[in-house]
Amino acid sequence: MFNLGLALTYPFKKENWQSTLLWPGLIFIVYFVGQYLISFVVALLFPMGSDPMQPNTTAMMLNMVSNGALTIIFMPFFAGFYWHWAEKLLIEGMEAPPPDWGDHVVKYWLDGLKITIVALLISTPYMLIIFSILLLKQNIFLVYGAMAIHLLVCLFLTPFVLANFIQALPEKRFTALFNLSRIFKTGCKYYGRVLLATLITLVCSIGFVVVMIFSCCTCIGFPVVVAASYAFYVHIMAQAFAGYRWIPETAGES
């Protein structure tokens, strides 16, 4: 059903690596450095208390807000590129070369911003719960518990979230991301395949994490592994939606 070998080797092919590894890897480096600097500054300004079960809520909230803002700046680059790449895979086949970055960086960012806004809307309830727990200065276990519940809910909603992005590919309009009837129809049709693909990527992510740990000793290895893991995820999800077709303008399914 899924060609894991193709998904793993695809980004490393000679004709693909610049688009799937080089450019995403460079952007990841800048993003990670920015996150590290933010966390370092916050830790200096707001040191953790002596009780690990009662964290410094000011520091945690400041970290979440600052890193969230940084993510909003950088996430559209990846989201836009992967969105266009998924469209090419579904139209031209799973071995089709990825789109070039070249002069399309701004277009990727603008299209990716639409996905980022939708992702923020989806995560708003989760963020409100976490902020409420922190403001009430509750035990850290409540924070972790809320995160675990949110992740579990997201797991079973993933087919509908991804169906949203897939069904909106032809137009790539912001309003197309809110076509609830198409989202529900597509999500139901591909629910089992996408859920299985999600579980596969979760299992494979363990292997990617192990490789990441060993690649941390190099400046090049770590961003390459991160970029490869995202490329693997996109390719597997494209395989899950293989066979999906759109009607131009109306973007219905044939």
Please provide a brief summary of the model:
The protein contains eight helices and no strands. The chain is mostly helical.
What integer is the average pLDDT?
83
* Helix-strand sequence: HHHHHHHH
The helix/strand class is mainly alpha
Please state the overall shape, judged from the principal axes of the Cα atoms: globular
Which SSEs are present, and which pair or pack?
Layout: H1 4-9, H2 17-45, H3 57-92, H4 105-135, H5 140-167, H6 180-189, H7 191-215, H8 221-240
Describe the structure.
The structure is a single chain. It is built from 8 helices and no strands. By secondary structure, it is mainly alpha-helical. The chain has one domain. The longest helix is centred in the first third of the chain and has 36 residues, at 57-92. 27% of the residues are buried. Residues 248-254 have low confidence and may be disordered.
